[in-house]
Amino acid sequence: MHDVIITGSTGMVGKGVLLECLDAEQIASVLVINRSSLGMSHPKLKELLLPDFTQLEAHKVMLQGYDGCFFCMGVSAIGMSEAKYSAITYDITKIFADVLYELNPNMVFNYVSGTGTDSTATGQVMWARVKGKTENYILDKGFKDAYAFRPGMIIPERGIKSSTGWYNAIYVLLRPFFGLLKKSSKITTTTKLGAAMIASITADQPLKHLENKDINNLASG
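^ thats the sequence. predicted structure below, dont judge the formating
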């Protein structure tokens, strides 16, 4: 039985991971850290509301004793400067990694980035460069284990919707084709993402950068 922390559970990916964790026998408890309340109730679920994520250290007493962190929080880089995007993407993730490593060095830390992320952190695409820098920090931090999840197309399941309006519009158009799309190894689902996250803390995985095909394989056990 494992205790896990999830960030970004108000978004599509994080909500999908949360629902799978609440259903999984392997997961004993879940602490979600969000700016706003989920408005959910479940025997396994605890919630830390944190309007300012830079103040995470002030809540150390709530963060001890966890086996995994599923870091699903993220924002689109569209319209953002590199400085602002880095502050949200790299700086906040670094704060979480530093605080959680101090308290739980034997945890597994899973970071959700995206397909096309630049591991060299030196390329021309800003978001990919920043995500790559963030991935590298997590993977090199020293946790018991760490993985960079790089999903491409994700099909939402279990009634989940994206918090991004234009994503939802695309999903409405594609819904008639979901059954066919799910057969592709290059496309994953919110359910499979959650299952893969859970699987990553039960046994070491050889791959540390997981694309959709790898996520699907891990989810299927």
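The chain has a mean pLDDT of 89.
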